[in-house]
Amino acid sequence: MLVTAYLAIIVLLALCVGLELTARRLSPFEPTKTTAANPAFRRFQNVFLRAYLLALWADWLQGPYLYKLYLHYSFLESQIAIIYVCGLASCVLFAPFSGWLPQALGRRHTCLLFCLSYSACCLTKLSRDYFVLIIGRILGGLSTSLLSTTFEAWYVHRHVDVHDFPKEWVPSTFTKAATWNHGLAVGAGLVANLLAEWLHLGPVAPFLLAVPCLVCCAWVVLTDWGKEEAEERPEGDKQTPPVARLILSSTKARFSRSCHDGLRCLLSDRRVMLLGGVQALFESVLYIFVFLWTPVLDPHGPPLGIVFSCLMAASMVGSLMYRLATSTRYRLQPGHVLCLAVLMAFFSFFMLTFSTAPGQPRPHESLLAFLLLELACGLYFPAVGFLQGRVIPEEKRAGVLAWFRLPLHLLACIGLLALHGEVSGTGGGEGGGGTRHMFGGCALMMLAALMAVVSLFTLGRNDSDLRLEGARGEGEMY
Prior knowledge:
Layout (H helix, E strand, L loop, with lengths): L1 H25 L4 H5 L3 H23 L4 H7 L4 H29 L1 H17 L6 H18 L2 H13 L7 H29 L6 H26 L10 H28 L1 H28 L6 H22 L8 H22 L7 H29 L5 H30 L6 H27 L19
Helix pairs in contact: 1-13, 3-9, 3-10, 5-6, 5-7, 5-11, 5-16, 6-7, 6-8, 6-10, 9-13, 11-12, 11-16, 12-15, 12-16, 12-17, 13-15, 14-15, 14-17, 16-17
């Protein structure tokens, strides 16, 4: 497994470079040419990216050795499953707060809250106390919710409302952030492996490295973002407590109205309902995969940081393949790509039900199946993002996505709790029956997601909203 992991990362990185060069040649991102000539925009973009990328880097550093750390502290697989469930449940509970906290505290202060809560989450990993580790996962759920909303909210507000840059320039920043995000994910696995295994500092080392990264992020938010906001804030423009309370009250009302409108949109449009079903089934399975990949591979001695980098590189390959497939040269529809991604994920879990048979584990096949699943993720996320942008009205999108996340996290929690019940009776561990049954359940969920995708595009066969511009043929979507 050691040699396999290193060969896989070399091949995947070479493939990433080749696909990136091909994608740039076939589908260059045109807004970059316009924005490059505007020094004020470039300066503002760099101020945002410095903080945002530090936050993403700190987040990725915690991925490769989270499960390994709990195992290192001698917790049972069933106990670790409960810790993961607590993290997922906290994501559900804190999701509404992440929407109105920026309005109540201010966007910049909420980003500082993210840095503080995530640093505390990392420091709890120094403790072997089970209750402290659960508190850490709850703080991690809060931090994840803030990371996914607050930084982008600050940027979009400053971009549109303060600097009055064209809205068409917003994607150039997030495209650059997404490109860096993939590279950071791959690099995080390599650095974590260096710290934990090559330097023999143990699985807690990557979490400790994340803390100074978060401190640097907070410093950039305090200084650079503070100067950015101070330039626009008139003297004496400070909120009094009654005004702050009024903002909090109005934000709660807006959130309630947003959820109500989102539910109405979800129930009135069958396309939205089907797309939500696909998202809930596909992404809940990913949470279960995040829990299971380490106990499946770790007994066979692979370098977990390198394996994590392989998984992230496979996801990068998938996103580059999506970019190529939907380019002006190939013009594959996002609906086709989504169907392919779900089919690949189904086949991946189908493989895993055989490669994790009790007493007959086949780790090389399991690693291949995991790479196939990450490749499917790279195809899935841009495809589903395109379709959400087309079928969900912009003013109702936040409310609809909030309803999407509810069954998503609920299914993931049920799956982990079911796994907890299985492993506590079998002793868990390598290739246990509980793990195999869970992969079989995930395959069935992917089959249901595939049926939902087919129904969606059968329903919208001639729907121009579900098609890229300039597509050929009236019934080409499916």
